[in-house]
Amino acid sequence: MNHSDTQTGGVSLHAAEQHLADDGFALLVGMCETGLLTRLLEVSTERSRTVTQALGTQTIGIGSAAGFHEIVQRSPGRWDIPVSPTEFGVEHQSLPWWPLIANTLGTDAEHAFSGVVYSDPGSPAQFWHIDSPHMTADHQPPHALNVMVALHDITLAMGPTEIASGSHRLTNHLRNPALVSNELVYQHETTRPELLVADTSGDVPERMSFPLTAGSCLVFDDRILHRGLGNGSTSRRNVAYFSYRRADYCENTHFESQRSIYSASG
Ligand SMILES: O=C(O)CCC(=O)C(=O)O
After folding, report:
1. pLDDT tier at 59, thresholds 50, 70, 90
2. CATH of the domain at 50
3. Could you tell me if the CB of 78 is within 6 A of ligand 1?
4. pTM, entire model
5. Is 211 within the bounds of a domain?
């Protein structure tokens, strides 16, 4: 089914698809109706409470390999807690952004990950990173997309996700020998937008971040350079995420943890 006439959060689906292809991201304002938003926030809040209570005083390093199935610390004070669509009480193909996903990745696109990522007040900005590497030297359409849903109004002080606009075309380590795949995917202090055009005449991709109203979504290509900004406010910043992949793409760099907080060995 082609959804080209659909409206996606007040933006035509066609315009959102075009932004995604050209800039590597699309901002969809007012995407979730109140019922969906309330459900996502309530389930996220309850799950984070249960998981952090079960974690207790166990320390947890940075990155998914150092984390648990139920919780990963993505950077200091930034916590990723997986929640499946079923646990959220939603059917992923019924979510309001699905037409954009289906038109970009195919109607057989698969749900890859979902959950909530929250940052504590005072937590610092992440290092720039991508979520998965390019697969071929020539530029291909995205193999995976992320939808970040603001679960409440998010001011710039609370640290929304920052994007290097258009960088999905520049993060190709198979084309640019100066780039190291692992230093793009795993947060590395030297990775920043300038690196992508070093020793070339190309412009540095513009850094962009937006205050988000509750229920607005930032959709981005998995290969774009991005980072969570620091939370300089006194409130916790909560974002639900839903990630999708093409049916023929099955790499995993997102959740590499091997242990559960509920197992006796930790
Ligand atoms: O917290 C955010 O805004 C982004 C998080 C992120 O990109 C990550 O942890 O990989």
Report:
1. confident
2. 2.60.120.620
3. yes
4. 0.93
5. yes
